[in-house]
Every structure is written in structure tokens, then in C-alpha cells.
Design a protein that fits this description.
The complex is a heterodimer of chains A (289) and B (320). By secondary structure, chain A is mainly alpha-helical. In chain A, 75% of the residues lie in helices and 0% in strands. Chain A has one domain (2-276): ABC transporter involved in vitamin B12 uptake, BtuC (Orthogonal Bundle). Chain A is built from 11 helices and no strands. By secondary structure, chain B is mainly α. Chain B has a domain at 36-247. Chain B has 15 helices and 2 strands. A two-stranded antiparallel ribbon of chain B has the order 1-2. The longest helix of chain B is centred in the last third of the chain and has 27 residues, at 212-238. The chains are: A mainly alpha (289), B mainly alpha (320). The interface between A and B is large, with 45 and 44 residues.
Chain lengths: 289, 320
């Protein structure tokens, strides 16, 4: 029983990272119409910059600075590289462009910081187990869950109640009309892209505290995040979060019974959802069909 | 009319010249510092990408997980030789069936999607097979890849042909020719014309009463069979296959090779593969940072050269 709980909780933590990544991906997907293959790259940027800055700013400073810098890099990438290709109707090009960026970022991270894994020091208060029976529930893991919840709720409040959020949602529905109503959609899209990269950077820093840093660390998270979006339903941010948590926990539970199947089960769930409910659990009908 | 005939003659001459160069490759490639296996690799990747281009360039479906079917073909062939029977034709056949049937079965899950969503689903489905091959250790060799098998001599009647590097190149060339003939015939048929019509205006084709989804499915399935064919030949070329053969990075490389050569052109992918494979071979021996160069290639092609080499050439031919 403890083993099952242990694995399910591990899965939940994985799912939290999937959900954070998926939130950023889904934001960029819906407003910028870009599948950001470099999302794992922005995760790496956030994590490694946090690692580099941690000796100067401390863990807490790095936790803010890493994602913020990832967002800044994202902003520069959007302005310099992605903006020129918005007018191409075929999504192929943005996909290939971000794919190339993903290769470049991973390779540069390896050149700058080395291929071997690096640890990110976590403050002692966060490192102690909360209970002796459930040794795996460390303070840091609870902290990861809390921060993710705060980020997700914060995103919801921004999208729901601020003018900026309303514009983002409007742009997702109908970009042309939004533009015609006087919204600067280029600035909006640039901000939105950076916002999505912030979430990638945040999941990078948080994941580094548990898994450590390696240049390909983004690779193992980006594909399940795609699945989280597909399972949750394209167009629904809430769905992406639920999708991420669901596949994470499912993978964790599978580990208990059949360890070799823990990754495959994620994709089997996706096939099942696609076969039974093609639009995803919370997706809107007719979108992208 | 006269101009059309002139263009057709020119094109036939170019194709004949290309074939002559391919047949003579084992003699001239070593002279310029290449090796015959590199020629086989180019032809195999060209087969895979031309198959993928049936979906990508001709039907307009953004398939971004094609390496899965390439890898299934490779594992199917390798596992046949290792565990079932020492027969090259049987290995290739089972490889083709493994990848092709997987694509055919999964087709209905993707055929209704369009654009970004189509791409996302094809990428994610590809990962399923990647993890099966990585985790099914005892049979597939896991992360280290499947080794311990070798291509067997061909038996034609009473003669036995040993598959040396050169002979294997000719076998690949024969297979390439068959695949090209099949694809060319399909594209000239009503099926092929419908694919192009779907690419150009999916809704209008639907209004004509055509079941678009079935045609997309057909394209996806045919592409799966041809890519798997290439994958099976690739496993026999190196007598080895690894999970890298079904990783999404290879899928992305396939797509960029197609775009580089020209995705609206039948032979475009061949040109893209030639440049990409040779450049990769050269760069990886030159610098440890070749991934950065490949990545830069992606970015530069997208920003500066989106129509590909033959695309630019075609546009000029039409304007002139």
C-alpha cells in the first residue's frame, strides 16, 4: 500500500511538471498558433540560469529570476524569429523553426554547462520529510505542488479578470476581430509567448530541485505535455492541467505493477481518449477538426 | 503546348541523368571521398521522405511522427532475422508490414484532424513505439539498440547473391525504383489527384461529396508502408537499429529534408536528403556542436528558403 502511495505521489509530482509545461504550451498554441517544440529548451534555459544565479540570489531569488529570464529569452525569440512567419498560413514553418531552436538550445546548454548532471541546492527547510510514515512527502514536493497551484490559479485570475487576460482570450477566439477593435495583437502575441515561456522556466527550476539539471531534461517533459493537452482537450487550459495530472498519476501507478509500461501507458491513455472522445476531456467540439 | 512539351523533355532528361548517376554511383562516389554505404543511406532516406511527402506535400497533412513507422520497419526486419528466419526478403516484408499496418490502424485517429492538431497527434503517437522499443529490453535490446543480426545472401533460383556493400546498394536501388514507380503511379491516378485537391481546398472537396477523411487515411497508410520499407532496408544496411530510428528528432529531420529539397516537387525530398545526409556526415566528423549547425539550418531554411531548392527552381520555370 505504501509502495502504491509512493508511486502515485511520485506520479503526481511528475504530473505537476507536465501540467505546468502544458499550460505554457497551450497558451502559445491557442493565441500564437505555434506548436512550441522549443518549450523544453525554455525549461532548460530557466533551470540553468536559476542554477547559475542561485549562489548570488539564493534559492528564492533564483526561483523568480530563472523563469523571468526564460520569459525574456522567449520574448526575444518571438520578436526576432517567430513574428516574421506569422503570416504564413502553414503551421509547418513555426513547428520547424522551434524544432531547430530546441536543438540549438540543448546543444548550447551542453557546451556551456557540460553534459553531466548538476544539482540545484534546495533550502533545508524544504528538504525534510513531513511525516516519518510517508517519507516521500518531503517539504519540497509539497512546495512544488503549492507553487504550481498558485501559478495556475494566478493564470486563471489574470485571464478571467484583467484587461490583458480578456484580450488574450478574445484573440484566441478571433484574432482579426480583436485586431480590428484596436488591440495591438503583435504586442499581445509577444507577451503571450513570453508568458508561456515563463511557465516553462518555472517548471524547469522546480524540476531541477528534484531531478537535477541535464541538457536534455526538457525532452522527457515536452512529449507528455503534448499528451496532456490532447487528453485534456485543445483550447481548454483547465483540461491541460487535469490531463497532465491524470497521465502523471497513471504513469506512477503503473510503475507499481508493471514498471516497464510506465511511459507507454501515457500514450495508450491518449489513444484511448482520441478513439472515444476525439476532442479531449474538456475540449470544445469542432476546434481543429 | 509547345512549351509544355519542351519542359517535359527537359524533365525526362533530368530524370534519366539522375538514374544514370545512381546506377554508376559505386564507381564514382569513392573517387570524390564518399563510400557506397553513404549512397545506400541517401536512397533509403529518400524513400522514407518521398513516402512521407505523400502526406506532407501532396495531401497537406502535417505528419510529424513519421520516424515511428521507419523504426517499426527497422525493428520488424531486424527481429525477423534475429529470431525467426535468416531470410532477407522475409525480413524486409515483415518490416514493411509492421510499420505499414501500424500506420493503417492508427490512421483513423488522425485523419479527421487538421493543421497543428494533426501534427501534435502524429508526434505523440510516435513516442508510444519509441518507449515500447526502449523498455521491451529482453527482445529489442532497449536503449542500446537491436544488434546481432546480419543481412543474408539472396537466393534467386539456383544462384546465390552475397550482399556485399555494393550489391546491397543495388538492391536498395531496385527497391527505391519500385517505391518511386508505385508513388508516381498513385499520384497520376484519381487517388493522387484527390490528395492534391484536398491540400488545395479541403472544404471544396468535401462539398463535392468526397469522403476526405478516407483519402487522408489512405495517404497516411501508403506513407507508412513506404517509410517502413525504407526503415527495413536501413536496419539491414547497418545490421543494427536503435530507438534513435523512431525518435521524434528523426521525424523532424525527415520533414526538414523535405522542405529543404522542395515539398511540392516529387523528387524534391531526394535532393534535400542528399544535402542533409552528406552535410550531417561531414559536420559530425568536424565538430562536436553539429546539433547547433543542424538547428541553425532549420531556422535559416524556414526564414530565408521556405520553398526549398526545387520550389525556387519551379517558380522560375513557371514565370519564364
Amino acid at each position: 500500500m505504501t509502495l502504491l502511495l509512493f508511486n502515485a505521489f511520485n506520479g503526481l509530482i511528475q504530473g505537476v511538471f507536465y501540467a505546468l509545461m502544458a499550460l505554457g504550451l497551450a497558451l502559445i498554441l491557442s493565441l500564437n498558433s505555434v506548436i512550441n517544440m522549443a518549450h523544453g529548451g525554455f525549461l532548460v534555459i530557466g533551470a540553468y540560469l536559476a542554477y547559475t544565479l542561485a549562489p548570488y540570489l539564493g534559492f528564492w531569488g533564483a526561483l523568480v529570476a530563472g523563469p523571468a529570464l526564460a520569459a525574456l529569452v522567449g520574448l526575444a525569440v518571438e520578436r526576432g524569429l517567430i513574428r516574421p512567419i506569422y503570416r504564413r498560413a502553414d503551421p509547418l514553418y513555426s513547428l520547424l523553426l522551434t524544432f531547430g531552436l530546441a536543438l540549438i538550445i540543448q546543444d548550447l546548454a551542453r557546451t556551456i554547462w557540460g553534459a553531466t548532471g548538476l544539482p540545484l541546492e534546495v533550502p533545508d527547510i524544504l528538504n525534510s520529510p513531513v511525516s516519518t510514515d510517508y517519507f516521500f512527502v518531503t517539504g519540497y514536493r509539497l512546495f512544488v505542488i503549492v507553487i504550481t497551484a498558485v501559478a495556475a490559479i494566478g493564470l486563471y485570475l489574470i485571464l478571467r479578470y484583467t484587461l490583458l487576460g480578456i484580450r488574450i482570450r478574445a484573440g484566441t477566439r478571433d484574432l482579426e476581430t480583436t485586431s480590428a477593435l484596436g488591440v495591438n495583437i503583435y504586442a499581445l502575441r509577444a507577451f503571450n509567448f513570453a508568458f508561456g515561456c515563463f511557465f516553462a522556466g518555472l517548471s524547469g527550476v522546480l524540476a531541477a530541485g528534484i531531478l537535477g539539471l541535464t541538457p536534455p531534461m526538457g525532452d522527457s517533459l515536452i512529449m507528455p505535455s503534448f499528451v496532456a493537452i490532447i487528453v485534456g482537450g485543445v483550447g481548454s487550459l483547465f483540461g491541460s492541467v487535469i490531463g497532465g495530472l491524470l497521465i502523471g498519476v497513471a504513469a506512477g501507478i503503473t510503475t507499481t505493477f508493471y514498471p516497464a509500461g510506465s511511459e507507454a501507458v501515457i500514450y495508450l491513455i491518449m489513444l484511448l481518449v482520441l478513439a472515444v472522445r476525439p476532442r479531449g476531456l474538456f475540449g470544445e467540439e469542432g476546434l481543429f477538426e | 503546348m509547345k512549351r509544355d512539351a519542351a519542359i517535359a523533355t527537359k524533365r525526362n532528361a533530368a530524370i534519366a541523368a539522375m538514374w544514370a548517376a545512381l546506377v554508376a554511383l559505386p564507381w564514382w562516389l569513392p573517387l570524390i571521398g564518399g563510400y557506397t554505404a553513404l549512397g545506400s543511406k541517401v536512397l533509403i532516406y529518400a524513400m522514407a521522405t518521398m513516402g512521407l511527402n505523400l502526406v506532407l506535400g501532396f495531401t497537406g497533412g502535417l505528419s510529424f511522427g513519421q520516424a515511428a513507422y521507419f523504426g517499426l520497419g527497422a525493428y520488424g526486419a531486424g527481429m525477423t532475422l534475429k529470431y525467426i528466419a535468416p531470410s532477407t526478403p522475409l525480413a524486409v516484408l515483415i518490416g514493411i508490414l509492421a510499420g505499414g499496418l501500424a500506420a493503417t490502424i492508427l490512421g483513423p485517429l488522425v485523419m479527421r484532424r487538421r493543421g497543428i492538431y494533426f501534427a501534435m497527434i502524429t508526434i505523440a503517437i510516435g513516442q508510444l513505439f519509441y518507449f515500447v522499443m526502449v523498455r521491451w529490453n529482453e527482445v529489442t535490446g532497449g536503449e542500446d539498440g537491436l544488434a546481432g543480426f546480419g543481412r543474408q545472401p539472396l537466393h534467386l533460383g539456383s544462384t546465390t547473391i552475397p550482399l556485399t556493400d555494393t550489391n546491397y546498394y543495388f538492391l536498395v536501388l531496385v527497391c527505391f525504383t519500385i517505391a518511386v514507380a508505385v508513388m508516381w503511379t498513385l499520384l497520376q491516378s484519381p487517388l493522387g489527384h484527390t490528395w492534391v485537391a484536398i491540400r488545395e481546398n479541403r472544404r471544396r472537396v468535401e462539398f463535392l461529396g468526397i469522403r476526405v477523411e478516407r483519402y487522408v487515411w489512405a495517404a497516411f497508410a501508403v506513407a507508412g508502408f513506404i517509410t517502413a520499407f525504407a526503415g527495413a532496408l536501413n536496419a539491414l544496411l547497418f545490421n543494427f537499429t536503435s530507438p534513435q530510428d523512431l525518435h521524434w528528432i528523426l521525424s523532424g529531420n525527415f520533414v526538414i529534408m523535405i522542405v529543404l529539397g522542395g515539398m511540392r516537387s516529387f523528387f524534391g525530398p531526394l535532393l534535400g536528403v542528399l544535402i542533409f545526409v552528406v552535410a550531417q556526415d561531414y559536420l559530425s566528423s568536424l565538430t562536436g556542436n553539429w546539433m547547433t549547425f543542424i538547428g541553425l539550418t532549420f531556422v535559416l531554411i524556414v526564414l530565408l528558403f521556405p520553398r526549398g531548392i526545387l520550389g525556387v527552381f519551379d517558380a522560375r520555370a513557371r514565370i519564364a
